[in-house]
Amino acid sequence: MLNNKSGVSPENRAKIQSVIEKHNYVPNALARSLVTQKTNTIGVVMETLTNAFFFDFIDGVQGKAEELGYSVVFCNGDNELDRISNYVEYFLHGRVDGIIAHYTRLDNKPYEVITRASKFVIVEGSAPGKIFNNVQVNNFDSAYRATKHLIDLGHKNIVHFTGDLDFCCSVERMNGFVKAMQDHSLPLDNAVIHADFFEDVAYEKMKDIISRNKIPDACFTGADKPAFGILRAMHEYNLSAPKDMAIIGFDGDLPDTRSMVFPKLTTVRQPFYELGREAVRLLVRSIEDQNAPPITTTLNAELIIGDTCP
């Protein structure tokens, strides 16, 4: 009756419905899942949920899941490998129908747990030697195109401030920069400057470059926050972009510093909303079709022209 199955007379159906309404009966989801072996719930584990940088991804996941009739449980790994692994382990015990993991570190420990799930999608990460549903941003190609844009503007002395090289996306972006420079026979000596995903390291390194009067023509950064650190340092020395040095960032992120007004950054914007929706699509496809082969979807990022590079 509760599942609208046939074989129940109209009279009995009406009586049962009356009892349901009288007692405010709500079907037990846990009991139903034991019968159907399905929870209609997706578990999402992320390195962090508290960074506004990922809000579009979260929005994309939730919106697509609701469209397809699934609820979502989000877990904040707080950038701790053990916590990320523990949340995945929790989901493995039948609490969800499948797992989406946004994990981009080169450390393999969480992958070893994630890939034990029967249904999962990894976003912007990889598990060497395994074939699975995967959604990627074309970091290498996007970095190559950003660097080539600087080259096409006539810049020859170009440097790259990396993101955190413990993350595969940073390595891919650095490699895209290096390949573009090599393809155009431009010098790479001292062209790669190791930074991270925050402002302060790039800020200090840029101040050192300026103090030694070694300012390059242009700079491509592996994330936006290092670009904002560079702009802070330039501002302190009365320098500006692109007049004194053109700058292109990567991510479409916001500055940590609120004590100055930054120019609109030219950046490579990631399609976070689309990443979230595609991750859900691939996961639900594998949940509802046991024979669906795994797919890797690669999305392109978009170069957004701002004030720091024409």
Q: Would you tell me the overall average pLDDT? A: 88
Estimated radius of gyration: 24 Å
Instruction: Provide the domain count.
Output: 2
Poorly predicted spans: 27-36
The helix tally amounts to: 10
What kind of oligomer do you see? single chain
In the CATH hierarchy, what is the architecture of the largest domain at level 2?
3-Layer(aba) Sandwich
Q: Could you tell me how far the N terminus lies from the C terminus, measured between alpha carbons in angstroms?
A: 66 Å
Q: Order the strands across the largest sheet as they lie in space.
A: 2-1-3-4-5-11
Topology:
Elements: H1 10-22, H2 29-36, E1 41-46, H3 55-67, E2 71-76, H4 81-91, E3 98-102, H5 109-114, E4 120-123, E5 133-137, H6 139-152, E6 158-161, H7 168-183, E7 192-193, H8 199-211, E8 218-221, H9 224-236, E9 246-251, E10 266-269, H10 272-288, E11 296-299, E12 302-304
Parallel strand pairs: 1-2, 1-3, 3-4, 4-5, 5-11, 6-7, 6-8, 8-9, 9-10
Antiparallel strand pairs: 10-12
Helix pairs in contact: 3-10, 6-7, 8-9
Tell me what you see in this structure.
The protein folds into two domains: 10-137 and 272-296, 3-Layer(aba) Sandwich (Rossmann fold); 139-269, Rossmann fold (3-Layer(aba) Sandwich), CATH 3.40.50.2300. The protein is 40% helix and 17% strand. The protein has ten helices and twelve strands. Strands 2-1-3-4-5-11 form a six-stranded parallel beta sheet, with helices on both faces. A six-stranded mixed beta sheet has the order 7-6-8-9-10-12, sandwiched between helices. The longest helix has 17 residues, at 272-288. It is elongated, with a radius of gyration of 24 Å. The relative contact order is 0.13. Mean pLDDT is 88; it is low at 27-36.
